[in-house]
Amino acid sequence: MTQAYNLSQLANNLNTSGQLDATDGLVNAVPVANGGTGASSAAAAAAVFGNILYPVGSLYINATNSTNPGTLLGFGTWAAFGAGRVPVGFDSSNALFDTAEETGGSADAVVVSHTHTATVTDPGHRHTYTRYSAQQIQSGSATPCWTGDSTQNTSLATTGITVSNSTTGSSGTNANYQPYITVYMWKRTA
Predict the structure, then answer these.
(1) CA distance 31 to 183
(2) By the 8 A CB rule, do 63 and 41 touch?
(3) Is 134 exposed, middle or buried (0-12, 13-18, 19+ CB in 10 A)?
(4) CA nearest to 73, candidates 61, 84, 85, 82
(5) In a 3-state reduction of DSSP, which class is residue 78?
(6) What is the pLDDT of residues 76-104, one digit of tens each?
(7) Which of 59-63, 70-74, 93-97, 115-119 has the lowest mean pLDDT?
(8) HSE-up of residue 145 (Cα within 13 Å, Cβ side)
(9) What does the alpha-carbon distance between residue 86 and residue 103 come to, in Å, rounded to a whole number?
(10) Residue 25, phi-psi category: left (phi > 0), alpha (psi -120 to 50), beta (remainder)
(11) Cα separations (Å) of 140 from 136, 151, 164?
């Protein structure tokens, strides 16, 4: 069925709040039998026009005006929708997003407290050094030098390294939100 509207006249009848003025003569009535709506008033035209733009189940979002769209637009029954939630697109391949109006997520996500563990294994070790046993004067020099060297090892020792394990983690409250902006959101229910 074809519906006829005088859209330029419709636009001229919006008041400063964006509402349709309910005055007669907004739409030249086209009888339903001729494919029209039979609407001859702003209120009737708003209801017909609203059903086209916002069918039941549609969302209306306004950044600054909290007025119920039924009052603001002049048609339909609307309920506040999605308080404190961000809409996510339907995704049939993801179980989290495969049903309309499914909810999830948390405003109070927490980074779980956890412990870091380190292990040091040092069975002990030795160092090798050269030991000189006597001083002798080298030929052509008056300076004594150490001679009679032998290779020695230190006694067995461990590093003495200590490791302290610590538990870490903190609350992630309000840290896991995606960027957002607050708006007024309504769902048309009838």
Answers:
(1) 40
(2) no
(3) exposed
(4) 61
(5) strand
(6) 999 999 998 888 888 889 888 888 888 88
(7) 115-119
(8) 9
(9) 10
(10) left
(11) 12, 28, 59
Round to the nearest angstrom and report the end-to-end CA distance of the chain: 22
Residue reference for tokens 């610590």: 166
Angle at 173 between CA 170 and CA 174, to 5 degrees: 135
How many CB atoms are located within 10 Å of the residue 73 CB? 22
Q: What are phi and psi of 64, to 5 degrees?
A: -130, -15
Residue carrying structure tokens 């600054």 = 64
DSSP per residue, 7-24: HHHHHHTB-TTSPBP--B
Residue pair 69/186 in contact (Cβ under 8 Å)? The answer is yes
Q: Give the per-residue pLDDT at 28.
A: 52
pTM above 0.90, yes or no: no
